[in-house]
Amino acid sequence: MTDKLYYTDSHIRSFDATVISCTKSKNGYEIILDKTAFFPEGGGQVGDSGTLGGVTVFDTHEKNGEVVHYASSPLAVGSTVHGELDWEKRFSNMQAHSGEHILSGVVYSMYGYNNVGFHMGADGVIVDFDEYISPEELVEVERRVNELIYRDTAVTAYFPSTVELANLEYRSKLDLHENVRIVSIDGCDSCACCAPHVKRTGEVGILKILESSHRKNGVRLRMLAGKAAFDDYISKSNSVLQISALLSAKQEAVSDGVRRVLDERDRLKYELTGFKRSAIQSFAEKISFSSSNMVFFYDNYDTEDLRFLCNLILPKCTGICAAFSGDDESGYKYVISSGTVNLRDKAREINTAINGKGGGSSEMIQGTAKAKREAIEEYFKE
Ligand SMILES: [Zn+2]
User: Fold this and answer.
1) Could you tell me the distance, in angstroms and rounded to a whole number, from the CA of residue 52 to the centre of ligand 1?
2) Which tens digits make up the pLDDT trace of 351-379?
3) Is 163 helix (H, G, I), strand (E, B) or coil?
4) Which of 11, 141, 224, 234 has the fewest CB atoms within 10 Å distance of its CB?
């Protein structure tokens, strides 16, 4: 079985090893060494990548106790190769995973809730707990987690004997009794885990909970730790800086500034609707009675405006009154009304003719159309 160097020392980033086997597979070559520092995917942590003898290793998995390196090119069996981990990725994974242990340990000690799910993805680390924790309570959880990081306490991993294990209190998702590896964080947590971790909590740097949501009876958290949290801070800080300049608001008061702009937008929208409605009203007053279909086109009326127009025109039209807003390129919104034609029955024919989608009642239908103005006018011409 492969000698797993990451169990001896989680900070080994390069090593020399002998190639035991090399098999061609669907995705490149599967390489097994006599020893390795590459961690195979497990315990919620993704497999390591890096190089072996200059050949790219893009993933690592465990098969029947052997660590399998997935490589882009073959390596000679029996040769000695130098292995280099993608240390930035591995260290970032360890920061996230150890951070998750501290978080889960704090939640367990504060509330007795269990971590029931853990996933490391591109958007951060997802952690599920079996009971709900409110955003207010999470503020305190986050504060305590970061306190433990500042205290820089020791993180140790070991395989206790069966007797030791029986007397040990630790978190575990599985009911294991043999070969259980315990990752212990001084003053915080003991948890069964197979993954490599930082040696001291200080290496985690920082932990930030980004969001929380209800998950069955519990809560789902999205968090970042270490460099990933710092990168996120830079990007959000830049965002706030730009918003603050755009609104001429202090950085810590940008949300008030955005609220002000939105209130102003709502007020202007309300005012604009008033102007549009009175324009529609005076336009409708000038329309004289007709038994022909009437078709109107506008650039920027919303469906409410079109409906308002159709309702005003309807008493003056015994045919079909159709109002469109939009343009030939991006398509049109429409409202069509009639006091004489059953539009529910005719909707399919109309939509086919104007390449549209939509429906409604027998008196009024609404929807969208992807046709040229000329073709629409042609259809409604009697
Ligand atoms: Zn773990």
Assistant:
1) 26
2) 999 999 999 999 999 999 999 999 999 99
3) helix
4) 234
Q: Which domains does the chain have, with CATH numbers?
A: 3-85 (2.40.30.130), 91-234 (3.30.980.10), 287-380 (3.10.310.40)
How far does residue 88's CA lie from ligand 1's centre (Å)? 19
> The whole model's pTM is what?
0.79
The dihedral sign for the CA sequence 205, 211, 215, 219: positive
CB-based neighbours (< 5 A) of ligand 1, an ion: 43, 193
Cβ-based neighbours of 259, under 8 Å, separated by 6 or more: none
User: Could you tell me whether strands 294-298 and 321-327 are parallel, antiparallel, or unpaired per DSSP bridges?
Assistant: parallel
Identify the CA nearest to 289 among candidates 323, 317, 321. Answer: 317
Residue 180 pLDDT more than 80? yes
What confidence tens digit (pLDDT) does each residue in 29-53 have?
999 999 999 999 988 889 999 999 9
Spacing, Cα 172 to ligand 1 middle (Å): 9
pLDDT of residue 382: 66
Taking the centre of ligand 1 as the mean of its atom positions, its distance from the CA of residue 163, in whole angstroms, is 22
CA distance 361 to 343: 7
Mean pLDDT (the chain, rounded): 94
The pLDDT-based confidence of 179 (bands split at 50, 70, 90) is confident
Q: How far is the CA of 146 from the centre of ligand 1 (A)?
A: 18
Q: Give the Cβ contact number of residue 340 at 10 Å.
A: 10
Cα distance between residue 206 and residue 18, in whole Å: 38
Torsion angle of C-alpha atoms 188, 190, 195, 201, degrees rounded to 10: 20
pLDDT in tens, 313-353: 999 999 999 999 999 999 999 999 999 999 999 999 999 99
H/E run at residue 162: helix 162-166
Q: What is residue 6's three-state secondary structure?
A: helix
